[in-house]
Structures are given as structure tokens and as C-alpha cells.
Amino acid sequence: MSEGKKTKFVVAGRDKKWTQGTVNPPVQRASTIVFNSVAEKNHATINRANKTLFYGRRGTNTHFAFQDAMTEIEGGAGCALYPCGTAAIANAILSFVETGDHILMVDTCYEPTRDFCETIMKKMGVETTYYDPMIGADIETLIRPNTRILFTESPGSITMEVQDIPTLSRIAHAHDIIVMLDNTWGAGVNFSPFEHGVDISIQAATKYIVGHSDVMLGTAVASEKYWDQLREQSYLMGQCVSPDDAYLGLRGIRTLDVRLRQHAESSLKIAQWLAERPEVDHVRHPALESCPGHMYFKRDFTGGNGLFSFVLKTSDPRATTALLDDMKHFSMGYSWGGFESLILANEPKSFNTLRTVANPNFTGTLIRIHVGLEDTDDLIADLEEGFRRYQKALDNHSA
């Protein structure tokens, strides 16, 4: 009997061989694994890549349980673990490229992903071409004989463009190109990567998987075709995580679905409120028609979360500072996915360095917010006070 979606998040990774009679798998810390016989040692050596206790860097039962859970949630054949999301991105790419290769990278990627391509990849002699997130079938015009990876991120970082992943995947596979997705926004809950043609789904588990802003953690779930290579290459590059962090990721999964639904409900209410504000030019929430790629969100996603952006009608750094300073419930911080609400601003000129082929070309300040689990009326009141400060600063500057 197939399990329902909600049930899956409760039972994933809770095989009896990991839980050993408890509700949650115990935290098993180990570097050295000791064996009672040569036969036992040989068995572990032969099966070291298949969730068998062999050496701490290969993982303990705590890691195996978390890997099982992520694989069950996202699909695929296996899950590699990394100390943060950026490490997951970097090592997934490094596992499949060599000097002379070419990468197609979405122009709206996470900023450290771009920095990795412009430094480490360039130093290795791997060339990167950035493409417009809304390119669709025209991606074929950018493919070269040496293109090895098509990297996607949907929705896009900061500006929230939703990509046509099935079309991009279909064209990439016709040229034997690996499709990678930064699926952190979808979190394995709202977007099923392997059902839409993705080969390797990457997450900063730091964000919604852990959900409490207290752990750095990355994951990459791969299809059967690419799992062995991703696993072994990542191992050779020394990638491993603390069992305590793996446990906290596993614990976060238990409430992942219910948290995401609350984040989504609250963020949509606030996004709709923002869309009516006189200070706001437009809202970039994937569930709203004003967001680029909204039609793909409706087609491919089963829900939203708390992260979206909106664009102000003007760009005045002093007024933006007045808006951001003295917020009661929205804190400024470089992350998202926790229970708390966050807010950050991007002035239009910043996109001159963040984008090379898909500059959004709006003239107002972009505000990215993460709607946490606070009462939405409190968050709206907080934003309303911020807009009062913002307008007062604008009036003072124009006087």
C-alpha cells in the first residue's frame, strides 16, 4: 500500500535497523569502526558504499537514516551529505566535470554558485555560460559538444523566476547532458525533481529541512545513472557531516510538510497585501501572476513556502534603510527557511553584478522577505510601520 504524503515525512528513514527500537534513530558518533573478525572486516570493506559501518567518513547509522529519508522524499537512488548547501553545489558539479568541459548555468543562481563558477571552475579550465531563466526550448542554441551540465535553480535566487524544468531537461537529455537543480525552495515537498527530468537534486538543508536556523547542512540526491559517481567523487573530496547535524536534519523532516504549508499560507496572505500597497510596484511570489514563470509554478509545483520578493516603485537607499531599521519581527539575515521572519534589500544597481544576461531591469528597490511562523497580523503590522518610516524618509528627502 502506498503511503500518503504526510505519512511519508513521518516514517521516512525510520527503518528498524536505524531506530533500534526507539522512535528516532540514535545519534551514533564514530570515526573508527572496529571489527571482531577478518570476515567481518572484509564484509564491511566490500559493502562500504552501501550503508554499512566501515569508517566514520562513510557514515554511521544516523547518517544512513537521514540519507534514506532524503532519498524517500525526493526520489532518486541515493543521497550524498555535505557540510552546507554551497558544498553540495560545488561538489556535485566537481564530480562530473574536467578540464575543457562547459557548463550552462542559470543566470539567477545563488550568488556563491556564480562565484564558484567564476573562480574554481575557471581555474580548472571549465567554461560557464549563463542563460536567461525563462529561455525554455531555446536553451538548445547554447549547447556545445563539450557541454556537460545544465544547472537550474527554480525559483531563481532573489528575483524568483520559475523555470520550465521539464522542457530544459528533455532538451538536455537529448544531448546527454546532466541536469542539476538547486531544489532548496521546493524543499522536496513542493517540487518532485525526478518526475520532471532532473538528474541530481541539491538542497541547502540548512534551510527548510533543518528548519530552525541552527545547523549548516547540504544534500544531493541523484538518479541511479549518476549516483555511484556522485557518491564516490564526493567521498574522495572528503565530504562528510557530523552525525549530530544529520540527526537534526532528520528531525526537521518530521515537521517539514506542516511547516511548509503554514509558511505558504502566511506568505501568500502577506504577498496579496503587499500587492495592494501604493509603495509596491509588483510582487514576485511564484503563486501570483506577477511573478515570472508563474504558469510553470501552477503546472509543476504542489505548494509554496515563505520566501518571495517584492519591488518598490522607487529606489532611495536612505528610505530603504528607514524601512529596514527598527523592524520588530523581521530580522535582517543572510538565510531563510527557519521559523523566524527575515528581510533584506537589493538596490537595482546590485543586479549589474548578480546578473549578466537576465537583468530584471526594474528601477525600484527589491525587498526579499522570508515569512516565518509568526502571526500574519503581527507581520503585516510590522511591515506597515516600516512603510510609514519609508514614506516619511522619502518626504523628508524631497522637501
TrEMBL record:
The modification N6-(pyridoxal phosphate)lysine is found at K207. One of its GO terms (biological process) is transsulfuration. Keywords: Amino-acid biosynthesis, Cytoplasm, Lyase, Methionine biosynthesis, Pyridoxal phosphate. Its EC number is 4.4.1.13. It is an enzyme of class 4 (lyase). Its cofactor is pyridoxal 5'-phosphate. Pathway: Amino-acid biosynthesis; L-methionine biosynthesis via de novo pathway; L-homocysteine from L-cystathionine: step 1/1. GO terms for molecular function: cysteine-S-conjugate beta-lyase activity; pyridoxal phosphate binding. It comes from the Bacteria. It catalyses: L,L-cystathionine + H2O = L-homocysteine + pyruvate + NH4(+); an S-substituted L-cysteine + H2O = a thiol + pyruvate + NH4(+). It is found in: Cytoplasm. Pfam families: Cys_Met_Meta_PP (PF01053). GO terms for cellular component: cytoplasm. Belongs to the trans-sulfuration enzymes family. This is cysteine-S-conjugate beta-lyase.
